[in-house]
């Protein structure tokens, strides 16, 4: 097996990660619009994409081992793409391999940043929901931060419930 199959598997991974970046942008929009139905659909698509990435990653590992065997390395070492490039003797193939590695690395870094942003947006949404519920239920964080002896509260539980249990 040649280095071409390794390059092809890296290009396939790059393509799928580009698709994941598009999904990340769509997720950001769904989060900002509070469109939970769309977010669930996007998460399902993302899950399918992750399964495809796992499969492509296995193919990449197989292509790397096949390339190692084709150049006479019988070890099952887990070499990086940069280390594999040292074993490529054709300058054009070496250049292609290093270029696709750089592109994939860039896409992965950008995807990581987008996912971190989406995570922050979700966290802020949850904090806002928690704050809104606290405001609706009359919970005062300042009152709860101060210690009160249980006998001083006059038998109240401190935080009123959302439902009237006497009804």
UniProtKB/TrEMBL annotation:
Swiss-Prot/TrEMBL keywords: Bacterial flagellum biogenesis
GO biological process, one term: bacterial-type flagellum assembly
Lineage: superkingdom: Bacteria
Keyword set includes Manganese: no
Keyword NADP (UniProt): no
Region (Disordered): 144-167
InterPro entries in the cross-refs: FlgN-like (IPR007809), FlgN-like_sf (IPR036679)
SUPFAM superfamilies documented for this protein: FlgN-like (SSF140566)
Annotated protein name in UniProt: Flgn family protein
Provenance organism: Paenibacillus algicola
Upper taxonomic lineage: Bacteria, Bacillati, Bacillota, Bacilli, Bacillales
